[in-house]
Amino acid sequence: MGEIVLAAKITHVPTIWMSEKVKGFEGIRKQAVAGLKEIGRRAEARGVETFILCDTHWLVNQGFHLNGRPGWAGTFTSHELPHMLHGLAYDYRGDPDLGDLIAEEANAAGLRTLNHKVQGLDLEYGTLIPMWLANTFGARVLPVAANQFSAPEENRDFGIALRRAVEKSGRRVAFLASGSLSHAFAPNRVSRDKLNDITDEFLRQVDLRVLQLWTEGEIATFLKMLPTYVTACHGEGAMADTAMLFGVLGWDSYRGKAEILCDYFPSSGTGQVIVDFPVS
Predict the structure, then answer these.
(1) H/E element, 67
(2) Which residues are bridge partners to 266 per DSSP?
(3) How far is residue 52's CA from residue 62's CA, in Å, rounded to a whole number?
(4) 10, 83, 232, 273: which has the fewest Cβ within 10 Å?
(5) Domain with 211 in it
(6) What is the pTM of this model?
(7) Sheet containing 140-147: which strands, arranged edge to edge?
(8) What Rg value do the Cα atoms of the chain yield, rounded?
(9) Which of 125, 14, 121 is nearest to 70 (CA)?
(10) For 125-149, what is each residue's pLDDT tens digit?
């Protein structure tokens, strides 16, 4: 029987790459680097065979999609922020069989889902930056898209179907919700000055309250505020990753208390964190 052995909300901001690779920015995200490495250490220790990432940089407009290619290799440069992220080499195995199982379960639940195995469907940096630091031991990678027009309830149901598929698969899996908390990107005229700042103090305060709810185990309260949080705080990719994560965990029946692995930090106006949710 398969099992979700690790579940986490993670960051993927390009300043993590800059912190390690770009002169003049050394160490600016050392806590995030350490947090992603700790995710990897825990995953390897728990025998993770596949990382499933809901990647909020792989945005789709209709339905639910998995990238079920057997593997990818190349060098990535961000079209969005080429001055921040370029030259990231990658080489990962995929998990097409698990992608098929998830699509089957999700379609049975009434969610229009496709598992793609086509050349040209490559990886986004919401997958590549976390895997660069966390997947140093050769686990498979299975990206899931974020539907930017989806509702939390749909993503909850997808997360539930995903967990059922994993249990049928025999795989030991880590599920990573790869996306920000608040995501009001800094306006262009001040974007350089906001590299290490939040766009609006309101957003910081709501993010910190969310983290308090998570660490105190008040998940049901958070889920009641999630639809408004998505709209009021400019949720990245409709925060599909976060709703899927809690679907995987059991939604409002989840009783775990989150562990913060990287203190909250702002990046280019957005709110970022790495949080591990105990699984059972």
Answers:
(1) strand 64-67
(2) 271
(3) 20
(4) 83
(5) 3-277
(6) 0.98
(7) 113-116, 64-67, 140-147, 50-60, 172-178, 3-10, 270-277, 259-267
(8) 17
(9) 121
(10) 999 999 999 999 999 999 999 999 9
Burial of 34 (0-12, 13-18, 19+ CB in 10 A): middle
Q: C-alpha angle with apex 81: 78 to 86, nearest 5 degrees?
A: 45
Q: Which two tokens stand for residue 26?
A: 């050394």
CATH code (residue 19): 3.40.830.10
Q: What is the separation of C-alpha 225 from the centre of its chain, rounded to a whole number of angstroms?
A: 20
Alpha-helical runs (H) found in the chain: 15-21, 30-45, 96-108, 125-134, 152-169, 201-215, 219-232, 240-249
Report the candidate in 101, 106, 141 with the shortest Cα–Cα distance to residue 123: 141
Residue 261 has φ and ψ, to the nearest 5°, of: -100, -15
pLDDT band at 28 (very low <50, low <70, confident <90, very high): very high
- Per residue in 251-261, pLDDT (tens digit) is 999 999 999 99
Q: What is the number of structural domains in the chain?
A: 1
